[in-house]
Write a structure and sequence with these properties.
The chain is mainly alpha-helical. The chain has a domain of 87 residues: Orthogonal Bundle (Lysozyme), CATH 1.10.530.10. Helices cover 60% and strands 0% of the residues. The longest helix is centred in the middle third of the chain and has 18 residues.
Length: 138
């Protein structure tokens, strides 16, 4: 008789570190996004419908071929998306700020405004992630 063992709960912080390393990003940076987005809560759902640890919108998750309700896929897709946004703004002097703003408000909004959109939520998100990143990097 085979016994089925309960799945081991994976530490979301470890998932974030692994996804950051896999995607060539500083783990502190991805941790900063996860902390600000959801406090590492996979059950987090924003009023606009963003899901999980990395707060992926369903359409973004679909484009990244990830199930946002699966913690491992959520974190991996979030790290891949961050990397893609950093590459999109690679030659911009405000690369990191624009990538974070695009992560929060969407690249179309950043491109439309030529920088961080005038949305309080996005402005606070960028500030909080950068503050957290500075603290973790010291």
């Amino acid at each position: 008789m085979l016994l089925s063992l309960p799945a081991l709960a994976v530490d979301p912080r470890e998932l974030v570190t692994q996804a950051a390393v896999r995607n060539g990003l500083p783990p502190e940076f991805v941790h900063s996004v996860a902390q600000v987005e959801s406090g590492y809560r996979q059950d987090a759902v924003s009023p606009k419908g963003a899901i999980g640890i990395m707060q992926l919108m369903p359409q973004t998750a679909k484009e990244l071929e990830a199930d946002p309700s699966d913690a491992e896929q959520n974190v991996d897709a979030g790290a891949r998306y961050l990397r893609a946004l950093l590459l999109k703004y690679l030659d911009d002097p405000y690369q990191v700020r624009k990538a974070l703003a695009a992560y929060n408000a969407g690249p179309a909004a950043v491109d439309r405004y030529g920088g961080i959109p005038p949305y309080l939520e996005t402005q606070q998100f960028v500030r909080r992630v950068l503050e957290r990143y500075r603290a973790l990097s010291q």
